[in-house]
Design goal:
single chain; about 450 residues; six-stranded mixed sheet; disordered N terminus
């Protein structure tokens, strides 16, 4: 019987299997995750950003995104299929990457059939990357995904691609892998050492199981390694690498064990702020001179007066980096993120403070209960959703106030004591970058 006529198993049909919605609580019992997975990821991201303190980060990033499209991508073990998951994850990553890193650049490298080649060059135009990757993925999957994956060739191609990056740029490689092995012509660990010496950070998002090569690659170069078990984990793992990583100071023991590493040197970066052109006739821009693209609008380089069609970009004539002030402002937020809010559990009835909670937790819970009894309710300072309400109950012939929770947790700003829900906490730290109660 052919493969096309066989019965499809139930676990192959499910796009949202039950096991993807289950997790373990503190006591080891099974609980439904619901939005708990997003909350856990949010707290991990805030902690990784330094908890709101001043952190050293590479704001101007040059990232090589390597996508594994070998024959392992054709394995039918999830819904939607692996290649569809990769296509959606890469598309979301490109959009989110340039939204959070407007003055950075990106290149896409494809790994398949034992080779690695550049799909797009380093550029700051997300439209070019998304269009090129979508066009490539529109080809027949059987012809596109073939052969074995070679991590060694990916590292060689990435090093050549990032060789011309200036000293102030942060060099990174992000490998989206579906393979559990690598077919290389030589010792791949020699290339791993070369990546460390050149100051390139390599992060890996892999499927199914942990691989020693990927773990060593991330640890030696100072990157991150995410093992994904579902399509949701692939998207979340890739999006977690959009924000600039915190530069960790290595100890002397780590330097002696891992070897020398090139460090990013601080330096002044010359940038230009072009003016917008308002033209009544079409003209040729310097960045698309080869394609003879004519347009009405554009921007004028302040140094050589050449016309460019979009920002941020690099002037094709004088090589000056051209940006707008909002681009620098959005990058500046990564250096001074808003302080992390303190999480307060509200999953208790009657306003009774949990006995098992630590002293800090009990103090926060008591302050929220006191605020609810004083005002009759506690609302989110961002969206005004009700978190706690006060009702009256009769006990021993007397009416006593009862505090009822409408959410299982709340978040309190340590500076202004403002109370927020989970959605507003995520919005403040991901998009707004300022506490609305403090300001």
């Amino acid at each position: 019987m052919g493969d096309n006529s066989r019965d499809v198993f139930s676990w192959e049909k499910a796009e949202n299997p039950v096991w993807d919605r289950l997790g373990e609580d503190e006591n080891g019992g099974l609980v439904e995750l619901e939005d708990g997975r997003g909350r856990k990821r949010r707290r991990q991201e805030v902690d990784a950003e330094g908890g709101g303190g001043i952190a050293k980060k590479g704001v101007i990033r040059y990232v090589c995104l390597a996508v594994d499209l070998s024959e392992s991508t054709l394995i039918d073990d999830m819904r939607p299929p692996r290649w569809t998951v990769f296509q959606n994850a890469v598309d979301d990553f490109v959009s989110s990457y340039f939204d959070q890193n407007p003055v950075s650049q990106l290149s896409i490298v494809i790994a398949a059939d034992g080779k690695a080649w550049r799909l797009t060059q380093l550029s700051g135009n997300p439209r070019n990357h998304r269009t090129a990757f979508a066009k490539m993925m529109s080809k027949p999957i059987a012809e596109l995904c073939k052969g074995k994956a070679s991590v060694q060739n990916v590292l060689i191609e990435a090093r050549q691609l990032l060789r011309g990056v200036p000293s102030f740029g942060k060099k990174e490689v992000i490998l989206l892998s579906s393979s559990l092995h690598s077919t290389d012509a030589g010792d791949v660990f020699d290339n791993v050492v070369d990546m460390r010496k050149s100051g390139t950070t390599v992060s890996v998002v892999g499927l199914c199981a942990e691989v020693f090569l990927y773990r060593s690659l991330a640890e030696i170069t100072g990157g991150a390694y995410v093992v994904c078990g579902s399509s949701h984990d692939v998207e979340e793992g890739l999006l977690s690498l959009c924000s600039p990583p915190v530069e960790k100071e290595e100890t002397e023991e780590e330097k002696a064990q891992l070897g020398p590493r090139a460090e990013q040197k601080p330096s002044l970066v010359k940038m230009g702020f072009p003016t917008k052109l308002r033209m009544t006739e079409v003209s040729l821009c310097a960045c698309h001179a080869d394609s003879a693209s004519l347009s009405y609008g554009g921007f004028s380089c302040p140094q050589c007066r050449a016309k460019v069609c979009e920002l941020p970009s690099k002037c094709a004539v004088c090589k000056l980096s051209l940006v707008a002030s909002p681009h620098l402002a959005r990058s500046y937020h990564h250096l001074y993120p808003p302080p992390a809010y303190s999480e307060v559990k509200l999953g208790w009835a009657g306003g009774q403070v949990e006995e098992q909670a630590d002293e800090r937790e009990r103090e926060l819970q008591a302050s929220v209960v006191a605020l609810a009894r004083a005002n009759g309710k506690v609302e989110c300072d961002g969206c005004a959703v009700k978190l706690l309400t006060v009702s009256k109950e009769r006990e021993e012939g007397q009416e006593k106030p009862r505090v009822d929770a409408h959410s299982d947790c709340a978040y309190i700003c340590n500076a202004c004591k403002g109370v927020f829900c989970f959605d507003c906490d995520a919005f403040v730290h991901e998009s707004l970058h300022n506490c609305p109660s403090c300001s």
